[in-house]
Write a structure and sequence with these properties.
Layout: H1 2-24, H2 27-33, H3 36-62, H4 67-97, H5 106-122
Helix pairs in contact: 1-3, 3-4, 4-5
Length: about 120
């Protein structure tokens, strides 16, 4: 529970910091390379899933007496965290370095994010 809330808080903090950094210090570079939209997508999805992680942690607390629900929430949280690190992380590295093959691993993060939402729903079926 605390792990997911802490992870969400850290991802949220970094999302705001990276978003501001991209909007101000990196805007010209990202625009020139045609990667501004890519960077903004990375920040946006990081932020959505930071909030999802906080939600998972809170739901684990509320439903702590139901081991099955907590188990599925844990899987959802792990999927959100792994998906965010792979999806947004690969996009950040792509924007910073121009290494285009990283685009091949980005969808793995997206699939993990989708799985996280499915697992969150499954926890309450």
């Amino acid at each position: 529970m605390k792990f997911f809330i802490l992870s969400g808080a850290i991802l949220g903090l970094l999302g705001v910091a990276l978003g501001a950094f991209g909007a101000h210090a990196l805007r010209a570079t990202l625009t020139a390379s045609g990667r501004l939209d890519t960077f903004e997508t990375a920040v946006k999805y990081q932020f959505y899933h930071a909030l999802a992680l906080v939600l998972v942690g809170l739901l684990m607390h509320v439903f702590g007496s139901n081991p099955a629900t907590v188990k599925w929430l844990g899987w959802a949280g792990n999927s959100f965290l792994g998906g965010t690190l792979i999806f947004s992380g690969s996009l950040y590295v792509l924007c910073a370095t121009g290494i285009t093959w990283l685009g091949a691993i980005t969808p793995i993060g997206g699939v993990l994010m989708i799985a996280g939402w499915a697992l969150l729903a499954w926890a309450f079926l």
